[in-house]
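Notebook, student rotation project (T.W.).
Task set for the rotation: take a protein with a known small-molecule partner, predict the structure of the complex, and write up what can be learned from the model alone. Partner molecule chosen: S-adenosylmethionine. Sequence and SMILES entered below by T.W., checked by me.
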Amino acid sequence: MITKELLQTFKDKNDLACLIEEQRDSGSILFVLKNLGYLPKGFNGDFLIPLLSHEHHQIRLWSVKNVAKLKDNTFFIYLSKMLDSETNTSVKREVVSAIGRMRNPENKEILYKILQDKDPKIVCQAIRALLVFEKDKELERKLKPLVNHPNEMVRTVIYKEFFSVKDNSQKGHMAHTQTYDFLKNVVVNGDVIDVLKYVPNESIHLTFTSPPYYNARDYSIYPSYQAYLDFLEAVFKEVHRITKEGRFLIVNTSPIIIPRISRSHSSKRYPIPFDLHQYIVKNGWEFIDDIIWKKPDYSVKNRIGGFMQHRKPLMYKPNAVTEYLMVYRKSTTKLIDWNIRSYNKECTEESRVGEGYEKTNVWEIDPCFDKVHSAVFPVELCKRVIQYYSFKDDLVFDPFAGSGTVGKTAKALKRKFFLTEKEPTYFEYMKTKAKPNLLEENRTKFLTLQEFINYILP
Ligand SMILES: C[S@@+](CC[C@H](N)C(=O)[O-])C[C@H]1O[C@@H](n2cnc3c(N)ncnc32)[C@H](O)[C@@H]1O
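Predicted structure of the complex:
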């Protein structure tokens, strides 16, 4: 049986051809290929050439991976032949990557040809390989038109490389970590659409909210479901404008039921998260994750009762114990790492999430009931979202503040908050809950829309 020690002996003697010849089964050849490790410059890789046309695709794949380590252009001829004959897409991708790693300008022609491939991942590999060369006129002429490629990944890469504005500071924006003092720890009593007109571009770090549940609760009445969706589209479009580059929006909703008007009619269920999703992504938000908030069985309305009695098919109505937290990120060509690097070491350290964090996208949290507001967030839910998606001192926004749970939790986690709430009853309720703080700078400001306008426009 072949062992790693035996393999090392043959590798040291540069006699791997002999070892491979001795192997009768594909498993042993694969073992050798997978355990070759680092191959120094000048290492004799000729034993890999016959394996590039082996019938077993995993052997071809691992042979190409090892050829790539050699970065030796003498293998180019074999790899380019594979491009015509290879039927397995993973192997083909690896071949393009290996050609790229050779970094030889003479290989550019073949990489240009690969840009026409049907597989967008292969096209992306070729683009990646070409981008290591100087962006001369010819390279730009070949790559720039791909900004209209049918595949979104290809379009994004080309857009980032050739069309995006490179430096934010050129736009005269304030630093990514900073925001306006007049938005910090402020609650405005007004319609969110009216208030946001006065909020500057790129001033919010995170938005977490639970919008009204269409007409399922008495605080919100819309003429139609479409009008409701249009309203939320307008809100999240504005939230997009005021959100900092690459930062997050988390929207909590669930399908709702509007009860039947009489026994001769049926009730109607509205899949809000699924319908709303289209309107959010079409306005520059990139979908990132769906988190399920699961409540205990006893805490939700019993819908299964009727079915339990008669067990008739088609009457099945499960108790709805879940809500969605849809996670979106303001579309950007910058990586998350860029956002993180904007913060200094001390802030990053202080914002580090402690032990006991949630590992899956199903969060089991008890709901919370409140004597004044009928749909409040549990603090635990806010805590997780704020900790996972913002840094200390960031500005957290809730356009539909209700009883102000987002603000309260943001403050407890040493973040700043900005809240809007239309209903005077809930606005007054928030006032009663806000404890005066000894630190003047952290004191919450409760403002009407007019007071807010006067406050920010001196
Ligand atoms: C589902 S509740 C949010 C509850 C909140 N998450 C909490 O923890 O208390 C939605 C809130 O949005 C408010 N609202 C509805 N339409 C609004 C609008 N156009 N502008 C601002 N607030 C609005 C409602 O009055 C309601 O309090």
